[in-house]
Model the fold of this input.
Amino acid sequence: MANACFSILAQVLLAPQEKLLSDLLELAQKLEKENYSLKQEVRHSSQGLEDQQQHYSHLTTQLEHLQSHLTHMEKMSMLGQMVAGIAHEINNPITFIYGNLPYIEEHVQDLLKVLQAYQGNSRESIVATLESVDIAFIQEDLPRIVDSMKLGADRVRELVLTLRNFYRLDEPEMKAADLHEGIEDTLLLLRHRYKSEIEIVKELDNIPPVECHINQINQVMMNLLSNAIDALLESDISQPKQIIIETRLLSSNHLCISISDNGPGVALGIQSRLFEPFFTTKPIGLGTGLGLSICHQIITETHGGKIYCCSSPGEGTTFRVELPIRQKHFETAEVLSETKPLSP
Done:
């Protein structure tokens, strides 16, 4: 009787534990399944994230290639402007030289007649030849023509050297360069665009050579001056059109270059976007919107300088470039572009 009671009591006590153990085993199996499913989801998510990263990396590479291509297009466009300017400027001295060739030929033929007359001919023949040739006029006119042709040839040579120096190949290291010479070269290449309508005023300080990539700085000057010329040629202001180029020292290791025009100025609403890539105020087909963006990159990132646009509508525009004179004496400058109203 006692054994039966103990047996029944054991069953009563053990039954809940067996149920609990069964529930725990079932729960463990569920957790294991869910853990496996979670691992699969994590694996798929990781693979998807990796694929996405590769896709983004591919897009970034394509974007870099596109930016490089567009930058090259902007440089080629600028080179086209320079070549057009050179062709226009070379045309005048070439035309002058070519126009004087018939007179040179005529004088040379007359001189050859005189030389031939002196080779074994009679005195009468020599006198007749001298009377038919105006030796006095040749003595006066021939040196003048030769000097003028030499002047034209020197002009052509100067233009070709300017183009070669302006668009030299990129060099890996910065070198000390004369910024004033670069400004003069730029003005020479753009002369055909402004000489008849725009006055250029130069207020150049005594600045030392600047350690830089001079071809890149020339590219900045070309872009800023071209924009100033465009603004003035497209405007109908009543006063004489004028561009002022100023250079001055700011400190022992910094200088600034300012290019100002008295055109219509830049609207306040778009001044903050001037240095954005692809932003342009020119009609479709007349501008890539990369010029000022490339200028900003050259000045701030490559040379550790700053570039500002100062403009008030109706009062003109000034672009101010600040550069270090010696690159080794400064830490990388903060990339900065600002727009400010002109002081009254």
Observations:
- Residues 329-344 have pLDDT under 50 and may be disordered.
- The helical segments are 2-117, 123-132, 135-166, 179-194, 214-233, 291-302.
